[in-house]
Batch of 3 targets.
Target 1
Amino acid sequence: MKVKLMCVIEGKAKLLVPDLTFYRRTNGIAEPSYAPIFYNSKMSFSRDVSILVLKTFKKFLNLNLNVCDALAGTGVRGIRYALESSPSRLWLNDANPLAVNLINKNLSLNNLSSISTVSCLDARMMFLKNSYGTLRFNVIDIDPFGSPIKYVETAVRALKDGGLLSLTATDIPALFGKYPITCLRRYGAKPLKSSFAHEIAIRILLGSVVRRVASLDFACKPVLSYFHNHFLRLHLILNKDISKANDSVKKLGWLLYCKNCSYREIRAGIDVSPPRKCPNCSGRLSLAGPLWCGNLFDKVFIRDMLSFMSTVELVNPGDVRSLLEIVYNELDGPPTFYVIDELSRNLSVSSPSPSKVVSSLKSIGFFASRTHFHPKGIRTNASIKIIYDVIRSSI
């Protein structure tokens, strides 16, 4: 099969990619998934962030990196990794023979063939073939169309102790609670429809990963977990240590939520006996989980990512900086966030600006910040009663 190609520049990479004008849906809309080889230019934001993560991780590890892009498509992510972060070894894999042919062309186009290995395998088989001795990777990136969870356990076997595992999930409807049975089947967790479903989704995904890697005696440390447009992205450092793995499992728990007044509570641990009524309004509490109750970000890691921004060639530098700066401000806050418009509707009042509410909460001694998860969201340790009082006084 002959694929219609075009040449694009992304960061430092020069690439041949499918020309989407030849691959349209019946309604005329160009769709990356309709092309014989997958390439989505809109995911350049994710690749920008990943390059900064890799550069920061390399600084922490202080080693030459052995990097694997397990679902490589055109090879764009791995090639940009190589051009910006200079790994000593690059392994690109895709089960699609057409993609593998294009990957080899793109590696040659960017003079990276000498440090690269290309395979045409199911990613899980490729991981198993690299699951011992010096063959293991320092960095594994899994960027599927849909859920990454089926690849996690074999990926961990191919990851060196202290390695970086990066995962993308695009099955947003299941994680957001539209298809709860699908979420239970894939992730072993009960989701919840809510205004802050973005964060619940991240925590369910992360909780599922933690359980799987802990079964192999690995502890999980999130350095950056975020939501952007239509996808979730996790960057995790894994350490093989039974004691630390146990500590990771202890950070799993449940979310209690009252849809009537927006009260919510996180309860970590195995023994959870949730109350039946909301302590704020006596409404019925809903339950979500098990999910990750710990931190989603690492402060030092995010700070170093910001410091590396001037050293890389990003496609979306303004958007990336905005994400990292908001994340840096919110990372000391508690789990979950509040959407100001929802709380204002509950009070039947006009909605004040989130920035004004944040400033008011800070002025009376509470932690408060904006959140990257939602443009009208705030993260705070103030009680729901105090937040309501602040909103009333901010009108």
Target 2
Amino acid sequence: MGFYSIWPYFIGMLAVLMLAATPLLKWADTPPTTVPVRVHTIDGLRGFLALSVVFHHAAIYHQYLLTGMWGLPPSRFYANLGGVGVSMYFMITGYLFWTQMLKAKGRPNFLRLYVGRVFRIVPLYFLLAAVVLLGVGVLTQWRLNEAPVLFAKNVGKWLAGGFLIGGPVNTYIGTGRIAAYVTWSLHYEWLFYGSLLLTSLLARTVISAALAPALGFLAAAVLLSFDQNNIPVAAIMLFCAGMGVAAAKSALASRSIPAPQWALSIGILACLALALGAIDGAYNALTIALLATAFTLILFGGTVFGLLLTRPARRLGDISYGIYLLQGPILFTLFANPSMRAFAASAAWSHWIVVLAAVLLLVLVATATHALVERPGVLAGQWVLARVASARRRPTAETPLAG
């Protein structure tokens, strides 16, 4: 088995599913947010997407240990794996929030939306930022190596809740590697949420609600055909793909595609296989079109032979944010240990054993932070919204009680 064989990925996924089926992950059974109607296939999909990003970074770590260079691995499968995971995350975001815009007819409660996002994303992000900054402190021996103003600026980027992309702190160039460089995607998520202040206006009519994402998708595809892997343009195409599926489901009253479940599942797997193994680069128009097709089949009834509806898959989906966000510190810590590093570098099988241990530990950590950080954060956001609503209802001297 060569180092870049796909089997470690599938064996690792199987091991994680087996762990997720045990009582150790029972904390993950309750969703982190109160949503009237959940799309269970999306719940089941999220965990696989987050874990794909983890295995992508695990492959990167192999060549980093050997060469000291952090970059895409020479395997097309592992090189595309992370981008495919993030891409479908962006589609999910586009789908869920455009669905909200459509239900509100372009007039959503933006206060509720943004307060909800802050308290959903920021608490766990702050935990990651604290770990990263603590790591920098240890690695630089708690000595200040840059001007205080520059240090404060660099730390501030890491404390911006993901809106800004953090870089080196205290001249330590590996700061981002402690987090496996995952926080960049949050920057685009925040930009998308901000864009809803304007794009929500397009959700006020059925025609514009469907036409806007379709035109955005096509325009971005054209631009990507001239400038492949342009991340901002790719992000627009991905968000528009999700928004387009939301518009289609709304127009069709969420009806499923009239095709056998096995045919939908094969179609999903075929699109994913082509995106991962037949095309160089995850952020180009053709790959995104394949992923958009797979996403559409999932949202219109595809379950990947029932896998996305299983309890282990949905548990992993509930803790997927923690899996995605906290992978960096665990991989960094394990591979920073000299004995573990030497063992991982000695052979392909030993590297993947270390990775498997890291992934299983990561799932347990993500389960704990889901219960202890994410859920309390969501409840805190609900408390804030309730206080705001109560303050708005409270009579003032200028507004006497009726009667």
Target 3
Amino acid sequence: MERRHANELPLDTPADALVCETILTQGPILRGEVSRQTGLSSAAVTRATRTLLEAGYVIELGPTGPRAGSGRPASLLDVRADREFFAGVTVATEELIGVVIDLKAGVQIARHRPLSSRGVASVVSEIADLVAELKREFPRSSGSMNRLGVTVSGDVDRSLGVAQYSPFLQWRNVPLAHLLESETGLITVLENNVRGLTIGEQWFGAGVGVSSFALVTIGAGIGSGLVVNGSVLTGAHGVAGEIGHISIDPLGPQCRCGCRGCVEAIASDQAIIDQIRSKTGIAGLTGPDAIALAKSGDPAARSVFSRAGRAIGLALAALANLIGPERIVISGEGLAALDLFETEVRQSFAAQAFATAEQCEIVIRPLSFEHWARGAAIVAIHDLITPETKNRRTI
């Protein structure tokens, strides 16, 4: 079945989309600055801007003063935030998190709902119920809401809207976007959860204005999203950025992927808990218990966190050596224990990064779970604007 989505924005060329994206992420901004940042001619920027103004997606703000060389006042361009709204849902470990955002990614509503089952039919039904709740609570006086972004863990083919493989959900080849479109009536785009968060940071977070960066998430798993020269990398098989499955110790612990010594098998939340349980003999140890034990000075617990920090630092260095990002942003629920291993992360990164790769900026950015849902909704904005979505493959 062909998935054709009507695009309300009349963006007929990549240049049009680039102008729209620049105003969206950099606005308020002068036309001349749009031209400078995009490398497009003034005529191309003016043409695209006129279309966006007529469609009501862009507005002109008041004059900012004389324009160089002409004496005429220059107006700033900005996106009209309330022109359209977007729903976003992320499937977390034990719950669904949903938000509604405006066109500038401002969160209007946020809701949580327990995930009762991982079966496809159940998840589809529960997401549809959550979206219905968001729609009911969304002010009817506000602009339209026609699009839904959904993120899940695992291998996702965004162009098909298919969750090809999700170990957490135990899914293979699930056409989730199509199923949700049928249930919700909303244009639906599906993306991997870390890539969704990365797109959110690229357009509205720590990646704004940076052409190449990596977002690394630590917690239940270790993952990363990669942006190189302004493009989010997916790889030929959709699994680019799986730094959690870089093996740094062939004799290390068994990973859930079947290999040994993966970063995730050493530094994920559960891996840390398992190692401390083994070293201390405390069978019922929880994550908060592990952190408290290490902070109390227990040498066994502290050694596990130190090892985790070194593993993460080596993974970050591998990223820096391979793609040379300007910035690496670290986030995820694992930051709750950051003070126990940040020194080791930075030391092992500095030791392993090759030459000038060591100059890569490492930024710590705590993000709530609602940011993951916001990232899903931002993917829906991305889907509206980027021209790649105009020619979808078929399923």
